[in-house]
Specification:
CYB561/CYBRD1-like (chains A, B); transmembrane monodehydroascorbate reductase activity (chains A, B); two-stranded antiparallel sheet; mainly alpha; Four Helix Bundle (Hemerythrin (Met), subunit A); 8 helices; homodimer; Transmembrane ascorbate-dependent reductase CYB561 (chains A, B)
């Protein structure tokens, strides 16, 4: 709750802005600190995942029993850290051309998707080599659901916003859905990572988990760090005042569109 | 993704409204269907939790080894179903007095809190009788965090919005934080339930989990239903057009306040 009581982020204080660059749209005062904190948390999550796999699971390799460990590492880097950062692009790049920002958002999601795919191949390949069953656990059901939703969201987002690009009216109607499902898929990714972490702990530690084994404590801490990263990213995405301001050209288009649609449906407020 | 492609809920279509009661503020056309769907999902989640505990865990009782089963049942009813419904109060009761709606929101959260407390006592008491360790798992760490946050949120919300009530300016500043942390605590509650479900499955089924045991399949389905309930509740909370319209008196107050604060800080956009 600390964040909620911090005077810089309470309610309308979200709107306090300072202009760091002459002539550019002003940056909300608290935003850079929250973004910096999110990156510190995100990098800590990746580092602690690496430390957990290195210290207690023998490290990471493709051609051995360590292939399994490629899975959590790739999923945390791709579907947690990079996916989270892709969502933050529109809060961080506020004055660059809209198209550049869009391409960066799409590219970060492509990197995340490819890294996640490597992580998926690693676990299926490992299961095959060991003769283990696939897709029986809640973690795997959630994981497949998240991966399919992520892929569909990318394809639909690309078709609407990049190439070939839908009409302005269609984009405006789809945008809130894209944002909602983007945030939802990110939250589901973090939740699925927690389920996987728990599964890995219980399979290896069993009843020793209750003896506060160092691995258990480190992995629980990693779980809480994952939750914190998720919450901070969503916190940055929430205030309307922290959204990327629309540029002069977009505002003109948006006003035209608003006039047109309000003429169409006067009761839409 | 089905919801995102439904024409009634795409982007600005959120704003399509019909007036069901003459003289009352109109109700967004798709909202009642989404609320009905959320209730169907919520009740299904409670029923499937009951079915799981009844069919595979011997049912629920306080004075026996079945005391443990009180824990998941209470947590799902309190911190998932009732908490979710408490968040929806402001979307469902749109024309009742603001104070009545507030009291209902607060009361639903009190019921949720009390039921969750019974669920907590059940598991700690069960652990004590069996001589099991407490608070070693990621599920328990997340659970305690959620319960403390939920309690603090209730106390702070009560102090600001009900009794004695803060000034209009303080309430307006705190409201976005209350809403953000309310939704976050709800999501964390659903996530913690999934971790608990997974723990219960792995402790009992062990390696048999991978043989697609009926209990495993039922519990995985329960996990997905919990996720769906969480997503639908958040989906209903998201569109600005679906928020409870402020009543004439509140609008006048809000305008005065806006004029005052904008006079105070001209750069706050």
């Amino acid at each position: 709750m600390a964040a909620s009581l911090h005077p810089q982020c309470m309610g309308s204080a979200h709107g306090r802005v300072t202009s760091w660059e002459t002539g550019a749209a002003p940056i909300p005062a608290a935003l850079p600190y929250f973004v910096a904190f999110s990156q510190l948390l995100g990098l800590t999550v990746v580092a602690v995942t690496g430390a957990w796999l290195g210290l207690y699971r023998g490290g990471v390799a493709w051609e051995s029993a360590l292939q399994f460990n490629v899975h959590p590492l790739c999923m945390v880097i791709g579907l947690v850290f990079l996916q989270g950062d892709a969502l933050l692009v529109y809060r961080v790049f506020r004055n660059e051309a809209k198209r550049t920002t869009k391409v960066l958002h799409g590219l970060l999601h492509v990197f995340a998707l490819v890294i996640a795919l490597v992580g998926l191949v690693a676990v299926f390949d490992y299961h095959k080599k060991k003769g283990y069953a696939d897709l029986y656990s809640l973690h795997s059901w959630c994981g497949i659901l998240v991966f399919v939703l992520y892929f569909v969201q990318w394809i639909v987002g690309f078709s609407f916003f990049l190439f070939p690009g839908a009409s302005f009216s269609l984009r405006s109607r789809y945008r809130p859905q894209h944002v909602f499902f983007g945030a939802t898929i990110f939250v589901l990714s973090v939740g699925t990572a927690l389920l996987g972490l728990k599964e890995a702990l219980l399979f290896k530690l069993g009843a020793d988990y209750s003896k506060f084994e160092p691995e258990g404590v480190l992995a629980n801490t990693l779980g809480l760090l994952l939750v914190c990263f998720g919450v901070v990213v969503l916190y940055i995405l929430t205030p309307p005042e922290w959204k990327r301001p629309s540029q002069a050209e977009e505002q003109a288009l948006s006003m035209d569109f608003k006039t047109l649609t309000e003429g169409d449906s006067p009761s839409s407020q």
